[in-house]
Write a structure and sequence with these properties.
Length: 77
């Protein structure tokens, strides 16, 4: 999230934001079951539903798993 707010003077401008940075190890998921699992994590988050993925679609996908080792965040709301 990011939004800018203006003021009457140059020094009174600001931004409202939330920010997250993460570090970890990335690995490419090669098996169709791993790819489908990763895609369903995303789809369930954004739609609330799980989906079936055709084998042809999974074969064309590249799914990267990131195992988070460290995460930081900040905000100005």
């Amino acid at each position: 999230m990011c939004a800018s707010f203006s003021g009457r003077e140059a020094c009174s401008y600001t931004s409202k934001y939330r920010s997250v940075m993460a570090w970890g190890k990335a690995s490419i998921q090669e098996q169709p079951e791993e790819k489908a699992f990763g895609m369903n994590v995303l789809m369930k988050h954004y739609t609330g539903k799980e989906f079936e993925f055709p084998a042809q679609a999974l074969a064309r996908m590249v799914v990267i798993r990131v195992d988070i080792e460290k995460m930081t965040g900040k905000q100005n709301l």
